[in-house]
Amino acid sequence: MRRDKKNLDSKFLTGKLKTRFTEDIIAIDEHSDMLTAVVKKEAIHEVIRFLKENESLGFTFLTTLCGIHYPDQELQLGVIYHLHRFSDNSRIRIKTFLPLDNPSVPTVTDLFSAANWMERETYDFYGILFEGHPNLKRILNVEYLDYFPMRKEFPLEDPTRKDKDNRFFGR
Amino acid sequence: MSDNRYTTLNLGPTHPATHGIFQNVLTLDGERIIDTEQTIGYIHRAFEKIAERRPYYQITTLTDRMNYCSSPINNIGWHMAVEKLLGVKTTKRIDYMRIILMELARITDHLICNSVIGVDSGALTGFIYVFQEREKVYEIYELLCGARLTTNVGRIGGFERDFSPEVITKIYEFLDHLPKVLRQFEKLLLRNRIFMDRTINVGPISAERAMNYGFTGPNLRAAGVDYDVRVTSPYSSYDDFDFAIPVGTQGDTYDRFCVRQEEVWQSLKLIRNALDNLPEGKYFADVPEFYLPPKEEVYNKMEALIWHFKIVMGEIGAPVGEIYHSVEAGNGELGFYLVSDGGRTPYRLHFRRPCFIYYQALPEMIRGGVLSDAILTMSSMNVIAGELDG
């Protein structure tokens, strides 16, 4: 019963998003654990606002916001938003990718107060700049840290060690 | 703030009333709070970075150290997240055992939080009463896995050992004894005039603002939103049980206290139900790639020895995929966003730590109030430094 409702919902959602943002949606995946849409960064604020404020959608809860780094992609840095609609428990994942030399994306703090610290954390670890954020500074690391530690070029181990490269982790 | 009408006061980072290491720089007008600036990160340990270099089974120990007042929920939540990625189906016995353990952890978590609200409002006695009960839960953990605080209990695919008869007796003893203590504790505080005056209308937040701030768990329910992960997306067979979700109306300190108190009663009911109806069956699922084989087999069978070696050395890759799994932890929705590229460690693991998200609402909740109310608001939000800093 629940599954049927969810499937129907993801079709409805995909349709809604595709008609409203034809140009801005790069990919939609309906086969993951929740509907996943990759969106151009210019449209990210508008997409999230639409999901939150459209009457038939109403994703009024921001579950998480976090960064990711894929060094092999052209657009290396990513921001991932998980939104949640309480009324029927549906979730949606929105991703956007940014170039390493200018990793800026509009803030969503005007829509969700919760995004304030989440964006600061993402800036702190990935160096992603959230335009319009009221107080974008480091949150968990010390202020004078001069790099963004979650990026993949910073190994966890002592960089002089030769026995801890990616081959030993199945990559 | 050059205006010398205002006083600046450092609350923390090592202040006894913050119950953890985080700082608030308060701007005060007399005793009224004008504003506060929060500084966190004093015990940040980079778990998300460490997790990118740890085999899946070793990440359980990292989750222990987030909300250390209820580590079994974190451990089991993580195991379930990995099982979701692997597509493992667990038996009913595992599910019920998990529920028993998670609810025990929820009880300890809520007992600490509520008794500390008492301590901060000047009633130390209740704290001592319930801490004795918490000790009994820790003895149960000790029998089950050898550890007390950072439990590292269970494994991907189930448990390392079954509940022994001794554990079951201990849990029943606890279930019989806690209600007496809990009733005494409630007599001390629940309708106590002084306590009510100190907590009603202290640090309130509306349901709308709470949702906007990403509140979950007892803090959100106290504001009147009946969101509980155990009900909306039941995991570990929670849908087999009948339990109530208490909600408040004002979202103030007193409502948060009452919601937690009622949840303890509901958890007691859940544990008894699960223990009475504990199904027969295996206490581990069929995941040879991740669940360590029994020691006798490791010594006597080649195949088991190979699996044992591969698991311990972390030589097993997980399937490619990305999942989000959440459980209802003591403080709210504890989420695991896991991206796997097929390697032996997660490519990216993000913990949705409920404390980190709702603690940022503190300035809005305490602004305009007096300093002593701010302390109570903070302790009723149950900010656990380990979970806050990750």
Question: How is this structure best described in words?
Answer:
The complex is a heterodimer of chains A (171) and B (390). Chain A is an alpha/beta fold and 171 residues long. Chain A has one domain: Beta Polymerase, domain 2, CATH 3.30.460.80. Helix content of chain A is 24%, strand content 25%. In chain A, strands 1-2-5-4-3 form a five-stranded mixed beta sheet. In chain B, helix 4 packs antiparallel against helix 16, helix 6 runs antiparallel to helix 11 and helix 11 (253-276) runs parallel beside helix 16. A three-stranded antiparallel beta sheet of chain B has the order 1-2-3. In chain B, strands 4-5-6 form a three-stranded antiparallel beta sheet. The longest helix of chain B is centred in the N-terminal third of the chain and has 29 residues, at 92-120. The mean pLDDT of chain B is 93. Chains A and B meet through strand 3 and helix 3 of A and helix 1, helix 8, strand 4, strand 5 and strand 6 of B.
Summarize the structure in short.
The complex is a heterodimer of chains A (171) and B (390). Chain A is an alpha/beta fold. Chain A is built from three helices and seven strands.
Primary descriptors:
A: 171 residues; Beta Polymerase, domain 2; 3 helices; B: 390 residues; Cytochrome-c3 Hydrogenase, chain B; 2 domains; 3-stranded antiparallel β-sheet; 17 helices; 49% helix
